Amino acid sequence: MATFVDRVVLHLQAGNGGHGCASVHREKFKPLGGPDGGKGGHGGDITFVVDPAVHTLLDFHFHPHVKAENGKGGAGANRDGANGRGLILKVPDGTVVHSADGEVLADLVGIGATFDVARGGRGGRGNAALANSRRKAPGFAELGEPGEQVDVVLELKSVADVGLVGFPSAGKSSLIAVISAAKPKIADYPFTTLVPNLGVVQAGEHTFTVADVPGLIPGAATGKGLGLEFLRHIERCAVLVHVIDMATMDPGRDPLADIDALEAELAEYGGLADRPRLVALNKIDVPDGRDLAEIVRADVEAKGWPVYEISAATREGLQELKYAMAAAVVAHRAANPPPEPTRAIVRPKAVNDTGFLIEADADGGFTVHGEKPRRWVAQTNFDNDEAIGYLADRLARIGVEDALAKAGAVPGCPVRIGGREFDWQPSVYAGVEYVPGSRGGDTRLEESLNRASASQRLAARKARRVRFEDLAAGQSTPGAPAAAAEGVATVGASAAGADDADDAATDPDAL
Ligand SMILES: Nc1nc2c(ncn2[C@@H]2O[C@H](COP(=O)(O)OP(=O)(O)OP(=O)(O)O)[C@@H](O)[C@H]2O)c(=O)[nH]1
Ligand SMILES: [Mg+2]
């Protein structure tokens, strides 16, 4: 029988985005025909899907490193790169996905349940897409983003209808072997069963699954023996069957004490109180076994649970037990319709796509947190000055530069964004000359203050109009030519102002 693997650590790497391309269109008699670099394809995602044909996590055990395909790079003539193929990993029903630090990311129950676990990186834009009215022929393109890299722990909680509960060597594996086609290991030493065995049982027209799990000893709920392994698998069973050993020679153990000990562990684990119980008194074929069973039967029945005297060795009493199990499972199914497969699971990580946050570091530097700054840094080719300037423009536009200045950054101090470290040089990358003024002042601000205000410009325009009207009326004055020249200059200045505003409003990089 194939090894049953119910816990694996997986290292997942979604595909990287393809790089955008920087290319210039060339044609005869048209040497510089404009930018035509295409964008890179997106990297492939990694998704878990519950598949009915998969029963263990064994495949992942042998292949714990999984990588989806990268996006292809863009090319000239506006050719976009192909997207990387996504990977669909088939997992068994009842797989729980944990993050490396133990947080439950998804609980995959029901055929078809899916979970997008690692997202591929976005492809970079080519220089054709980066061109705008100001930057007509960008000599750079965006890099593709790296795909998400995550480590997860997959854990399989068996989804069986009936769980067999009992002390080690009570005969649980022997029972599942005789009522189903499962061939578990059976031996006369405790903890023979280390991982659960699942068997399919047919009773009349009903079919159900039975899980034989490792033996339980007192203290299991706190981790003794293989207790937690055992309890994890019992958690999802609809019906529990106590398998009680009628032939144990251990001093201090008797059937009722065994049941009480098992119940105490189940109660400590919690959440199992509502499961219907059956009691199978096993090994009645041994001398005294049958007598013992008859003696304790009444006491067990007093707990309100149906009792079956069986022998896994001689197969006595198995039919009644099988039919009783089937009846309990059918009753449970009728009361609890099968769970809807979880198709869309909201990713637990909140994606902040709006802003950024500045954190002061111990060494006098600053770290900028935020989805956009992180992504923009990842998209930047640091071998290309134009691309670096573009990054600085983008960061300045959402206010990172101002916020750093406010937080107390001084030129030259380290600023960390998306795992990279920069020396902060305000506005230099953006190509704007920064001339430090007096403390609290800024020469650029003073220049703009010297400009005529809107009301002054309006007054000048009115004055001009009056003079033109005067001219039209034929009242020539000696000051008119000078006034006309002043008017032209004013108009020119305001037109330049409008240009600035237009650029800022239509710049697609604000995205
Ligand atoms: N005489 C007799 N022996 C049995 C019967 N059922 C099981 N045994 C024996 O009891 C021993 C333990 O059986 P297992 O089926 O391995 O017990 P288990 O409950 O699965 O034990 P663990 O896996 O260790 O928890 C084996 O030697 C079996 O042959 C029975 O009905 N009659
Ligand atoms: Mg066993």
UniProtKB/TrEMBL annotation:
UniProt binding sites for GTP: 166-173, 191-195, 212-215, 282-285, 311-313
Residues of the OBG-type G domain: 160-330
Subcellular location: Cytoplasm
Alphabetically ordered keywords of this record: Cytoplasm, GTP-binding, Hydrolase, Magnesium, Metal-binding, Nucleotide-binding
Enzyme Commission (EC) number: 3.6.5.-
InterPro entries, per database record: G_OBG, GTP-bd, GTP-bd_Obg/CgtA, GTP-bd_prot_GTP1/OBG_C_sf, GTP1-OBG_CS, GTP1_OBG_dom, GTP1_OBG_dom_sf, OBG_GTPase
Binding residue positions for Mg(2+): S173, T193
Feature: compositional bias, Low complexity: 472-498
Positions of the UniProt region annotated as Disordered: 472-511
Residues in OCT domain copies: 348-426
Class of enzymatic activity (EC top level): hydrolase
Ranges of residues in domain Obg: 2-159
Bias type Acidic residues, positions: 499-511
Cofactor names: Mg(2+)
Family: Belongs to the TRAFAC class OBG-HflX-like GTPase superfamily. OBG GTPase family.
Annotated HAMAP family: GTPase_Obg
Subunit structure of this chain's protein: Monomer.
Summary of the function given for this chain in its UniProt record: An essential GTPase which binds GTP, GDP and possibly (p)ppGpp with moderate affinity, with high nucleotide exchange rates and a fairly low GTP hydrolysis rate. Plays a role in control of the cell cycle, stress response, ribosome biogenesis and in those bacteria that undergo differentiation, in morphogenesis control.
Name by which UniProt lists this protein: GTPase Obg
Species of the source: Pilimelia columellifera subsp. columellifera
